[in-house]
Amino acid sequence: MTTPDEDRLTKPDEDGLTPPDESRLDESQELIDDAKKIARELREEVPDTTPEPPREESSPAG
User: Fold this and answer.
1) CA-to-CA distance for 39 and 8, rounded, in angstroms?
2) Residues 2, 10: contact at Cβ < 8 Å?
3) Stretch 10-28: mean pLDDT
4) How far apart are CA 22 and CA 34, in angstroms?
5) pLDDT above 90 as % of the chain
6) Residue 46: what are its φ and ψ, rounded to 5°?
7) Is-contact 24 18, C-beta < 8 A?
8) Could you tell me what percent of the chain has a pLDDT over 70?
């Protein structure tokens, strides 16, 4: 017996899937590259800070 995921992998034509559009893949890759570049620039602009220790809400304050 196969899982639904395995069925999908073995019968791609039955789902009505079409081959990927190469131009859209290229466009997607460009967007991904741009996002990575922006993320890298933002990381350089913001200095690394140490996260605050988590607060325990159950302990009484004071």
Assistant:
1) 35
2) yes
3) 74
4) 18
5) 24
6) -100, 120
7) no
8) 50
